[in-house]
Design brief:
This protein is α/β, with parallel strands linked by helices and 315 residues long. It folds into two domains: 200 residues, NAD(P)-binding Rossmann-like Domain (Rossmann fold, 3-Layer(aba) Sandwich); 88 residues, UDP-galactose 4-epimerase, domain 1, CATH 3.90.25.10. Helix content is 41%, strand content 17%. The protein is built from ten helices and 13 strands. The strands form four sheets. It has a seven-stranded parallel sheet, with helices on both faces. Strands 7-10 form a two-stranded parallel sheet. Helix 5 links the parallel strand 5 and strand 6. Helix 1 packs across helix 7. The longest helix is centred in the N-terminal third of the chain and has 20 residues. The chain starts with a strand and ends with a helix. 47% of the residues are buried.
Amino acid sequence: MRALITGISGFVGSHLAEYLLSRDYEVFGSIRWRSRLDNIAHIKDKITLVETDMRDSHSVVRLVNDTEPDVIFHLAAQSFVPTSWNAPQDTIFTNVIGTVNLLEAVRSSKIDPKIQIAGSSEEYGLVHENETPIKESNPLRPMSPYGVSKVAEDMLGFQYHKSYSIKTIITRAFNHSGPRRGEVFVESNFARQIAEIEKGAEPVVLAGNLEAMRDFTDVRDVIKAYALSVERCRLGEVYNICSEKAMSIKSILDTLLSFSGEKIAVKNDPARMRPSDVNLLVGDCSKFRKETGWKTEIPLKKTLEDLLNYWRHLV
């Protein structure tokens, strides 16, 4: 089996590449000319990298025609929510046009791959308490340009399946974490701050909104779900991927702090607050579990401990 991972050098893409290699896939991946390759340095000689600008249709056509994949995992995106407020046009263009270009490239090609489109729980946005846990049928009320861009990707996947019989499966993963998680994301940022404190930095962790409730899953469980989605899920359908448990950001920070022997204070940083925030995101993935048999295996405490140790190693 030949697999193409767009955004292979990212956090999720690197873990997915490792997993697919362990299952004897031939793995191809798209990278930008300026992509950092730290996450895939240890497997670089086992995969084929193709320099691609997902925003350029000709570049994406070459990517698809040169790799001829049996399955495509579309992960490439501007995925940091705060950046989407600072650069909404770039976020929309990168995520939406990149997805259109990929679907058009497949439509014009001679191949007929299954395509997993990585959506997000941010698509749900404003969720009322009586709507939790969130099912795939819940209204989409995105609260950020990033969330809007993911709704558009989601709808494009559906439309191209219905209009052109493109074999899309749409996943909406809730928060996922683990080693290699980007430092701009909240739990990884906490872990880096703690690792730096252990090396002598001022013993204060800066934090934003600690009251938000999120549904966290280990990335190593999520990438197994992605692989299962193209094997067992119905084409054109949407699937939540989550732990079905809500944790406050404060409890995430408290767990990370419990791994350190340092005495560390927590200070609110107004610069880390968002213009609008989603207070509660906890999902229902019974639809996905029923069709694939998937279940989470790695407890959150282990995820956070591995994340902190990752940053200790880098620091």
